[in-house]
UniProtKB/TrEMBL annotation:
Residues 1-93 form the HTH arsR-type domain. InterPro entries: ArsR-like_HTH, HTH_ArsR_DNA-bd_dom, HTH_MetalResp_TranReg, WH-like_DNA-bd_sf, WH_DNA-bd_sf. SMART domains: HTH_ARSR. NCBIfam families: HTH_metalloreg (NF033788). This is Metalloregulator ArsR/SmtB family transcription factor. SUPFAM superfamilies: Winged helix' DNA-binding domain. It comes from Acetobacterium malicum.
Length: 98
């Protein structure tokens, strides 16, 4: 797998609205699945599938603490990427005012 393949894998994983929300909620803290599930209005099975995709893309890492599985952002560059994306989206909306 080359760097372009990894880039595509990361962007594909972030390309789903639910997964993007999950990553944004994990930028500053580690959370267990139970806490994440309270923040989103869908089943734990659905949440687990999204977490699996994010883990397989290398974006998140998990750690079992007692009976709970905790997740956090593994790649610090993801936080910078999301910040840049937010700035780009703001710039996009500014250009619509022409």
């Amino acid at each position: 797998m080359n760097s372009e393949d990894v880039s595509v894998k990361i962007f594909k994983a972030l390309g789903h609205p639910i997964r993007l929300q999950i990553v944004k909620s994990l930028q500053t803290e580690s959370l267990c699945v139970c806490d994440l599930n309270l923040s989103f209005d869908f089943s734990q099975a659905n949440l687990s599938q999204h977490l699996k995709i994010l883990r397989e893309a290398g974006i998140l890492e998990s750690k079992k603490i007692g009976v709970e599985m905790h997740y956090r952002v593994k790649l610090k560059g993801i936080t910078r990427l999301l910040s840049t994306m937010d700035q780009t989206v703001a710039e996009y909306f500014e250009t619509l005012d022409f």
